[in-house]
Amino acid sequence: GENVEQHPSTLSVQEGDSAVIKCTYSDSASNYFPWYKQELGKGPQLIIDIRSNVGEKKDQRIAVTLNKTAKHFSLHITETQPEDSAVYFCAASRGNQGGKLIFGQGTELSVKP
Amino acid sequence: DSGVTQTPKHLITATGQRVTLRCSPRSGDLSVYWYQQSLDQGLQFLIQYYNGEERAKGNILERFSAQQFPDLHSELNLSSLELGDSALYFCASSVDLGITEKLFFGSGTQLSVL
After folding, report:
1. Mutating which of B1, B90, B103 best tests the A interface, going by the most A Cβ atoms within 10 A?
2. Cβ contact (<8 Å) for A46 and B102?
3. What is the spatial distance between Cα A53 and Cα A36, in angstroms, rounded to a whole number?
């Protein structure tokens, strides 16, 4: 069935360093890949997304890359700040099932001052 | 604040009972989604409604049901509750049924079944 694997499960970096989170999806029909950030006591919040016709997308300190051939995509956060500390989830969906997201297991990012 | 309102924030009940979780989507959003978040299963899609009609189903148990009302708010009904139903239940909304949907999540309802 559809599956999204996410690594690592925990990640600790020093403030100012970069953080990279990687995901692999199984459904070759997937063509939409959002990333969500979840802070304690809150719901997931969309931070960036990418479609399968694009290889890379950047928004300030956040970038996402997609390799359709290998079926994996990654989140890159540069110049990390303590407020980046949260759980990050990758997800994938098919074009005709926009809201039916298959989520990865999450990565708990800790940015140490 | 995402604009999606979920009530109650916390719910404690006993096995065998029935509960109703409520969700008000963002103003103007026609689609509502329900997700379940637990430590062992992660975030799992349950069901989607669009303008009052069921559009997609995920891993939703037969003991669970949902509906979306004419004012677009939605309710998730959980019955014959079991210990394993304890989880965080999220509602999300989006504008329509576009190919790629940006979902806006509420803060969730924490359900504890004792």
Report:
1. B103
2. yes
3. 20
